[in-house]
């Protein structure tokens, strides 16, 4: 409230001052002055007095300015305008001050100056791709691989292949916004994607097993070792499952094929069979048993076939049955320090006077130390109370299983170093077969320290090694052969001979038909009869019964041949007919036909065939022709020394003309003569004759190399290049061309060096006489292929021209300048003209001869 009152006071003071100034009188400030002294009540009274005061008129009220007004010193007034505007002719209204901006600029908001126009923000866009605003203007941009159209708006593709061939060493293909380099057959792009190099051969090709070189323009190929085959990537080798399609295992003998990595093996699954010597078929195990071996000592029947065994100290004789003592003393395996005495199945060490054996029974020690010798027991063991065998030591004797102790069971060491009782002991064999047949079901065989059970022929030991099981399969003494009978109606009653069989124990179960007479329907049936003995051994008798149906199906309503005519230009036509019907004594037939889709038949004859087959394979056929005809073309004339071959099965029949071997056309005929719908041949019915061909008399291969060096010394540089390049070229490349020049070495003319404005051209030729029988195809293919392979010649990278500080080779961008090009021309004998790579003798008056000139091959 105080601020409001102070503001009112100031405003009142200002108005009074203006009023007094205008009248020239001194304002009365008594009350106003007291306002500041007497507070709020005086201020309110002064405002009331101010309202009652009469003010003079404002001069601007009479001017009527559109914007602003200023009072003149003489009491008048004039109109004013804000920045950017000026008074109009009426001196009252303000108008915009005209501003002229340069192109690409516009007045600013205050119209006090010019600002840039951002054309890139305009719609529609001023550029076809990208826009960059610049002061007073703009510019359009394009992505990589494109350039600005002359209209300055749109972007067009840059054909990089037209600029230095895109940097490609061979073929350049332009693409929108880019380009691709391609290589000829047998070559591939290097890492930069522009230079072609010969494809790697076997080195680094990645074959898992074997790699084979191909021609220069073909990739190598891989092969695998025996037992493997190529994987899908044609490089790796995977195991071949020979059992799936090829093996030599004799399955009829019971042999089964088992695949292993890189090979296969045959195995026998029947327990009574083993593999033959060639490992391909199964044979019955030989009935070798411990009983049949006649072992003198022991037998090991835990493996097949069983083998004879010997106790320690003995070895098996060469006859495989008897055991011979091992003379450890003679074989120096005893370890005695003094004397060795051989004994049956063992040996002992002895000492001279004054010495005795130590406890190891091998070392002799002085008698000053009293101790008994270490006791031993052949085929047994001795347990003592002391290992030093001092007087008072007690030892207990025991035999191993299968032997019984003969002699005192224990001995004691006396003070004089002698065992008491001084009675020898030994372990003798126990005859287990004497007690309850050794627990064997059939045969018991005793050996030293052991015994074994054996079985009679046709039996094998069970896993308990005591009891026997039947191992012999039953056997059919009569199994019927295959039977063929004709059907009576839809079946036949078949009787076969009685099936008989035998077994060493007896057959307990028969699985199969219970009688030897049964009814069989039409077809092939397999009869199986299986017999089992009590052990589960089995035998199978099987034979086939073929009930033959000799009656053919019957066809009815087979249509006659159908002839239709079609309008010219019609390629196919729908043809229909009543379908034939088929029946058969078997009740069912399978009908097939060769009718086109939707019954749309092409021009010409079409042999429609219905075929009905019964389950026995008897066939009935219904055939008829559907013939669509129109106007035919006349026969073409056969060329002399040539032939015409035609294909009349097509909708539009066509013919091709060709020459016999050793003859050629002077003027090539059309690739095909097509029979038109109007009966005329397209493009012509004129067939030229063929003329004998001859081998060219000579061939000339002209090589040219262009590189980016400019001769700095036109007199001496060509001489230096000629003396340097040809020897280097011949040493590096001519030798590899010799396979093309069959009868003699390739010969080359002296090089010609031409100094040109921007580069240097080197040319030389190889002239070959073909009259000596040189193979023209080998020569042409050899020269072209060799130049293709070696087109980047290393000598271009190593030449140094005298007087020049830099190496004599162009920058990477000019790699194509180091390419060697070759042109091959052939020469024909007088009176002959060149047709492709052959020469043809011009017959007199032949109009086509003057039109054909010798050219490049």
Chain-averaged pLDDT: 79
What class would the helix/strand composition place it in? mainly beta
**Helix coverage percent of residues?**
under 10%
Number of helical stretches of at least 4 residues: 7
CATH topology of the domain at 697-827: Alpha-Beta Plaits
Instruction: Assign the CATH architecture of the domain at 697-827.
Output: 2-Layer Sandwich
What is the CATH level 1 assignment of the domain at 697-827? Alpha Beta
Distance between the termini: 116 Å
Widest sheet, order of strands? 31-32-34-35
Kindly state the number of beta strands: 68
Largest sheet, described in full?
4 strands, antiparallel
Query: What is the alpha-carbon Rg in Å?
Result: 61 Å
Beta content: 35-45%
Choose one word for the global shape. extended
Low-confidence stretches: 1-40, 791-818, 852-857
Can you walk through the features of this model?
The strands form 28 sheets. The protein has a 4-stranded antiparallel sheet with strand order 31-32-34-35, with no helix packed on it. A 4-stranded mixed sheet has the order 42-48-47-45, with no helix packed on it. The protein contains 7 helices and 68 strands. Among the domains are: 1-56, no CATH class; 166-198, Laminin (Ribbon); 210-239, no CATH class; 242-284, Laminin (Ribbon); 326-369, Laminin (Ribbon), CATH 2.10.25; 370-456, Complement Module, domain 1, CATH 2.10.70.10; 475-548, Immunoglobulin-like (Sandwich); 554-629, Immunoglobulin-like, CATH 2.60.40. The two termini are 116 Å apart.
């Amino acid at each position: 409230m105080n601020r409001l009152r102070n503001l009112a006071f100031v405003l009142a003071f200002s108005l009074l001052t203006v009023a007094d100034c205008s009248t020239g009188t001194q304002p009365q400030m008594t009350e106003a002055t007291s306002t500041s002294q007497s507070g709020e009540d005086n201020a309110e009274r002064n405002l009331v007095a101010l309202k009652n005061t009469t003010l003079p008129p404002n001069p601007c009220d009479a001017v009527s300015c559109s914007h602003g007004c200023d009072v003149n010193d003489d009491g008048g007034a004039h109109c004013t305008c804000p920045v950017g505007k000026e008074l109009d002719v009426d001196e009252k209204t303000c108008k915009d001050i005209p501003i002229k901006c340069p192109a690409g600029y516009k007045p600013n908001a205050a119209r006090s100056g010019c600002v840039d126009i951002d054309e890139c923000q305009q719609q529609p866009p001023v550029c076809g791709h990208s826009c960059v605003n610049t002061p007073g203007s703009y510019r359009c941009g394009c992505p990589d691989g494109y350039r600005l159209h002359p209209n300055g708006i749109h972007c067009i593709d840059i054909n990089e292949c037209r600029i230095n061939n895109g940097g490609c060493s061979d073929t350049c293909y332009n693409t929108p916004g880019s380009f691709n380099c391609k290589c000829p057959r047998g070559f591939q792009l290097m890492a930069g994607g522009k230079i072609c190099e010969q494809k790697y051969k076997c080195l680094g090709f990645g074959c898992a097993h074997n790699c084979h070189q191909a021609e220069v323009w073909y990739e190598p190929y891989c092969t695998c070792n025996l037992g493997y085959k190529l994987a899908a990537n044609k490089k790796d080798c995977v195991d071949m499952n020979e059992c799936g399609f090829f093996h030599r295992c004799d399955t009829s003998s019971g042999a089964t094929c088992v695949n292993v990595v890189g090979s296969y093996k045959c195995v026998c699954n029947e327990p009574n069979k083993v593999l033959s010597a060639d490992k391909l078929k199964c044979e019955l195990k030989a009935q070798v048993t411990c009983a049949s071996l006649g072992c003198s000592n022991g037998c090991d029947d835990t493996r097949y076939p069983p083998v004879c065994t010997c106790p320690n100290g003995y070895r098996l004789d060469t006859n495989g049955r008897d055991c011979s003592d091992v003379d450890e003393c003679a074989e120096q395996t005893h370890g005695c320090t003094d004397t060795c005495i051989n004994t049956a199945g063992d040996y002992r060490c002895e000492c001279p006077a004054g010495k005795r054996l130590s406890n190891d029974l091998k070392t002799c020690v002085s008698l000053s130390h009293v101790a008994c010798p270490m006791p031993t027991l052949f085929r047994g063991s001795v347990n003592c109370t002391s290992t030093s065998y001092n007087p008072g030591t007690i030892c207990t004797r025991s035999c191993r299983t299968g032997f019984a102790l003969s002699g005192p069971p224990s001995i004691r060491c006396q003070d004089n170093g002698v065992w008491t009782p001084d009675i020898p002991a030994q372990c003798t064999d126990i005859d287990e077969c004497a007690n309850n047949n050794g627990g064997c079901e059939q045969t018991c065989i005793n050996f030293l320290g052991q015994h074994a059970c054996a079985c009679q022929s046709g039996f094998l030991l069970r896993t308990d090694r005591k009891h026997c099981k039947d191992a012999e399969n039953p056997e059919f003494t009569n199994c019927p052969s295959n039977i063929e009978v004709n059907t009576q109606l839809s079946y036949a009653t078949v009787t076969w001979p009685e099936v008989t069989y035998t077994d060493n124990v007896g057959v307990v179960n028969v699985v199969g038909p219970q009688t030897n007479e049964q009814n069989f329907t039409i077809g092939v049936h397999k009869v199986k009869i299986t017999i089992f003995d009590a052990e589960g051994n089995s035998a199978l008798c099987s034979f086939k019964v073929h009930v033959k149906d000799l009656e053919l199906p019957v066809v009815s309503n087979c249509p006659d041949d159908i002839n239709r005519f079609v309008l010219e230009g019609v390629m196919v036509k729908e043809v229909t007919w009543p379908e034939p019907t088929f029946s058969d004594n078997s009740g069912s037939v399978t009908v097939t036909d060769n009718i086109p889709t939707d019954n749309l038949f092409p021009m010409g004859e079409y042999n429609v065939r219905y075929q009905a087959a019964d389950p026995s394979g008897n066939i009935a056929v219904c055939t008829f022709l559907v013939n669509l005809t129109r106007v035919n073309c006349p026969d073409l004339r056969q060329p002399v020394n040539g032939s015409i071959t035609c294909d009349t099965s097509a909708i539009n029949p066509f013919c091709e003309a060709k020459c016999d071997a050793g003859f050629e056309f002077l003027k090539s005929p059309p690739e095909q003569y097509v029979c038109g719908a109007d009966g005329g041949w397209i493009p012509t019915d004129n067939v030229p004759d063929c003329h004998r061909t001859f081998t060219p008399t000579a061939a000339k291969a002209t090589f040219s190399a262009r590189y980016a060096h400019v001769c700095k010394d036109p007199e001496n540089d060509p001489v230096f290049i000629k003396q340097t390049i040809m020897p280097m070229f011949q040493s590096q490349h001519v030798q590899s061309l010799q396979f093309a020049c069959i009868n003699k070495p390739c010969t080359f003319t002296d090089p010609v060096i031409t100094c040109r404005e921007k580069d240097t051209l080197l040319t030389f030729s190889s002239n070959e006489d073909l009259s000596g029988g040189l193979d023209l195809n080998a020569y042409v293919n050899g020269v072209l292929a060799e130049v293709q392979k070696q087109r980047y010649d290393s000598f271009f990278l190593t030449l140094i021209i005298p007087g020049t500080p830099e190496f004599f080779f162009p920058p990477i961008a000019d790699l194509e300048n180091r390419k060697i090009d070759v042109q091959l021309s052939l020469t024909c004998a007088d009176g002959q003209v060149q047709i492709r790579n052959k020469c043809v003798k011009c017959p007199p008056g032949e109009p086509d001869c003057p039109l054909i000139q010798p050219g490049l091959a």
